[in-house]
Amino acid sequence: MNSYIMAADVGATKTNIGIFQPRAEELERVAVRSFQSCAEGGEFIDRIKEFAAVEMGQGELLATCFGVAGPIVNGRVVATNLGLELDEKTLQRELSCSRLKLVNDLVATAAVLPVLKNSDVVSLQSDTSQVTNQEETIAILAPGTGLGMAFLVDGRQLKILSSEGGHADFAPRDEEEVELWRYLKKRFGRVSRERVISGPGLVNIFAWLRERQPDEISDVVSLPGNISGADVVAAAVTGDLMAGKSLEFFTSILGGVAGDLVLTGMASGGLYLAGGIPAKIIDFLGRGQFLTAFNAKGRMSAWLEQIPVKIVLNPEAALIGAARIALQQIPTTY
């Protein structure tokens, strides 16, 4: 009988699910499928079971790990921007798998960092003064539908600290950002970092600039329906001035928060930008606003300038990381 591992990356927009076979301490990919995320737990479990039945047949499911975009508390999670409720005991029973673990999606992303290939990342700032190793803390920041954060404390043992720092307060750094904060405060009552640094956050920045400059012509305004962060990025790529200005604010604020995260965790091993947005705006991240804000930390600036900063390109990073966490649950005597 064949033995398998199941892993999933459950985001607010899309779910990636995969079946893998353990080979010594490595994983062999068997099948991966993507589907639109759903908020109903029964429907989600039915999709998972159907996928497992097709790809595993009568095989044995050794371990499972689902990375979910939300805080895990006592084996339960409510996906923050989706509403999907999951708990480990129900999933263990439904999938007939006792070794089943729910983790935050950024914990899953952190777990893949030690095995990423050079082709999986692109560097924005290299470390010229020190050789990093897997015992140094690494910070992970992931803007997408929401804003995820985590710290990889030990890459060898996969010791990872989860974080909900994306919901911490947005702290404006100059008068323009104070104006942005006031605009968002009026709309939402409280302004978290996620209200600014995410796909919806980019739309919020665009809407604020539109209110400031109502006579400014922008192709985004003429789009049908509700605009998305992807619409703003696409317009910026084609030279739309307001969309481009929105991305300038976005990348600068992202850089400032990224620098704060590295300082908070003393992440000498570097910063990895993951999630759905960074890989799509590499050119904008490389134009200077991001690194200027990242390194502008007063007496700590010189230290930050030595920190490696990389963008994760592999769209299956969290899925593979979840599979590595599942593999870790299998006894070494297996």
How would you characterize the overall build of this protein?
With 334 residues, this protein is α/β, with parallel strands linked by helices. The protein folds into two domains: 3-111 and 316-328, Nucleotidyltransferase, domain 5; 117-313, 3-Layer(aba) Sandwich (Hexokinase, domain 1). It has helices at 41-56, 88-95, 105-112, 175-188, 199-212, 229-237, 241-265, 282-285, 289-295, 301-304, 317-328, and strands at residues 3-10, 14-23, 26-36, 60-68, 72-73, 76-78, 85-87, 100-104, 121-125, 138-143, 147-154, 159-163, 270-273, 309-312. It has a six-stranded mixed β-sheet, sandwiched between helices. It has a five-stranded mixed β-sheet with strand order 3-2-1-4-8, sandwiched between helices. A hairpin with a 3-residue loop joins strand 1 and strand 2 (14-23). The longest helix is centred in the last third of the chain and has 25 residues, at 241-265. The chain is globular, with a radius of gyration of 21 Å. The mean pLDDT is 92.
Helix count equals 11
CATH top level of the largest domain is Alpha Beta
Would you count the extended β strands for me? 14
How many domains make up the coordinates?
Answer: 2
Task: Please write out the topology.
Blueprint: E1 3-10, E2 14-23, E3 26-36, H1 41-56, E4 60-68, E5 72-73, E6 76-78, E7 85-87, H2 88-95, E8 100-104, H3 105-112, E9 121-125, E10 138-143, E11 147-154, E12 159-163, H4 175-188, H5 199-212, H6 229-237, H7 241-265, E13 270-273, H8 282-285, H9 289-295, H10 301-304, E14 309-312, H11 317-328
Parallel strand pairs: 1-4, 4-8, 10-13, 13-14
Antiparallel strand pairs: 1-2, 2-3, 5-6, 6-7, 9-14, 10-11, 11-12
Helix pairs in contact: 3-11, 5-7, 6-7, 7-9
